[in-house]
Amino acid sequence: MESLVIPVIILAVVAGGVALAAQAIGRRQAAAREAATAPAPDASELARLAAAKLNEEQHRKLYALIAQGQAMAAIKFYYESTGEGLRAARDAVGALAAHPQPFRGPQAEAEDVEADDDTPQRFPYRYRAIASKGDVTREVSSNMLNDEIYGRIRTLARSGDIEGAATALTKHSDISMKQAREFIALLDD
After folding, report:
1. Are the C-beta atoms of 86 and 79 separated by less than 8 Å?
2. Which of 69, 62, 152 is nearest to 102 (CA)?
3. Contact of 121 with 144, CB cutoff 8 Å
4. pTM higher than the cut 0.85
5. How many CB atoms lie within 10 A of CB 33?
């Protein structure tokens, strides 16, 4: 009988280990299924969330790296600054490059008040809008423009509201009304 005690104890320990391993694998698979079914945030929302994790200096440096075309350095910098995983850092930098975000301090995040769309907001980057027709090319560079505002200006121009588009362009840049009209005239597609 004593000769069977040790093998039975070993068998019980092995069975307990297998049961614990199966339970851990089951939890991992359940977590993976849950993560796969959770809707991923869209790129603009991901960019907003990613920008909120950076302080002002980190935000400035990250956009400097993106503007210089140093994607790998930007990903590494975001990874080191936030402590997020490498894949999350890659996705965040891609979203921030595609959807530039202004730096919002803690007060702005706490208030989370929507600014009036007609009030120009200064962004920490310069946006370049280029329009050309034939040999004529015009460029507007401003830190009060972004994709959304420029899209509204183009929509106004395409709908025939040249004056409204020119007014919006002068409001969000440092160009004259004459220059804005010349630029808008080149937007006809």
Report:
1. yes
2. 62
3. yes
4. no
5. 10
Report how far residue 75's alpha carbon sits from residue 98's, in angstroms, rounded to the nearest whole number: 14
Q: What pLDDT was estimated at residue 116?
A: 47
Query: CA 19 → CA 13, 23, 24, 30, 33, distances in Å?
Result: 10, 6, 9, 16, 21
User: 172: helix, coil or strand?
Assistant: coil
pLDDT at 107: 56
Q: Which residues of the chain have pLDDT under 50?
A: 109, 112-116
Looking at residue 161, its amino acid is D
- Cβ-based neighbours of 141, under 8 Å, separated by 6 or more: 126, 127, 128, 129, 173
pLDDT at 37: 67
| Confidence at residue 117, expressed as pLDDT on a 0 to 100 scale | 53
Q: Smallest Cα–Cα separation from 74: which of 84, 83, 61, 87? A: 61
CB of 120 closer than 8 Å to CB of 167: no
Q: Which helix (H) or strand (E) holds 130?
A: strand 127-133
- DSSP annotation of 157: H
Maximum pairwise Cα distance, the chain: 104
Inter-residue contact 120 to 172 (CB < 8 Å): yes
3-state helix, strand, coil in the chain (%, to 5): 65, 5, 30
